[in-house]
Amino acid sequence: MSLQQFINEAISPWMKEEGPDSDIVMSTRIRLARNFDQTPFPIIAKSQNLEKILDFFQQEYHHQSFNNYHDLEFVKMSDLQPIEKRVLVEKHLISPHLAENAELGGALISKNEQVSVMVNEEDHIRVQLYFPGFQLEEALDQAFELDDWLEEKINYAFDEKKGYLTSCPTNVGTGMRASVMMHLPALTLTQKVNRMIPAINQLGLVVRGIYGEGSEALGNIFQISNQITLGRSERDIVEDLQSVVNKLVEQERKARHILVEQSELQLEDRIFRSCGVLQYSRIIESKETAKCLSDVRLGIDIGYIENIPKTILNELMVLTQPGFLQQYAKKTLSPHERDILRASLIRERLKLEK
């Protein structure tokens, strides 16, 4: 897949697939932080060190394939325009840190966009592997295999007592962040999610917004991930996360059932009002879009809405972000211009299903 396809197609191929518990768990991600041995970490490295790593990845992995992840494309950040970087962030293929701070950074991306290896971000290597739905164990197995494949040509910075060495001490040990993206509208509407977050934090997990650290939980979408990386195995970390996510799935389903039983008319009104806003608005801001998309997704999951597939909502979540809107328009847009174009694209996209 070419760079232009990564940038121009709103929804990644893997996102079109259904996964276990996908009515609540939108995606699963395993991220591994790794560094080259005997090489200064990116935060203190000289430009020649970083350039050498970029050249290594381009020579060794560009257009290579691993298992089902074909035609890995290596992209240098210096070759991208700011809007193009923003699009890749909105698709979760690179991090905001890589887009904003790593001129000598790059990314190795698989054709189906399920694998993304960020180069010279906070660490030399940040491996990311995505799965639809709730698939932590499968994602971990695949991440181990991908890590082994990279290690065939790379000597990692590793200490027998501390584990994998990383730029940030909070990643030392396994270097792993396991996370799931969850849609929790009912727990939010019943105001239970705010009471759950402190309890989740006490278990060594963290709750963030859709774009990770420092981001807002737009559209009732929350990212749940591990905080502890040292002193526990990857399997143990994943088991703990799996247990908490199972409880959240159970509680979200109960909350949805209660809403339908006790507030059916109000819930139905909220969902169809949001559907109408998406179908008929001429100007719409990103926060309102996220709220309406969340309501409509809930309406699909509980059977109120039958003529809109969830894949369109996944697509609109990305397509209506500022970077994609400006990429679509082929020019920089003011916030007001983005709000107008956003409304227009949503109307046209929803009409295709009628």
Overview of the structural elements:
- This protein is α+β, with helices and mostly antiparallel strands and 354 residues long.
- The protein is built from 13 helices and ten strands.
- Among the domains are: 1-10 and 31-173, Creatine Kinase, Chain A, domain 2 (2-Layer Sandwich), CATH 3.30.590.10; 261-352, no CATH class.
- It has helices spanning 3-8, 47-61, 82-90, 96-101, 136-151, 185-189, 193-202, 234-262, 264-280, 286-301, 310-319, 322-329, 335-351, and strands spanning 25-34, 73-76, 106-109, 115-119, 125-132, 158-159, 163-164, 176-183, 205-208, 221-226.
- The strands form two sheets. An eight-stranded antiparallel sheet has the order 2-3-4-5-1-8-10-9, covered by helices on one side.
- The longest helix is centred in the last third of the chain and has 29 residues, at 234-262.
Keywords:
alpha+beta; 354 residues; 8-stranded antiparallel β-sheet; two-stranded antiparallel ribbon; 13 helices; 10 strands
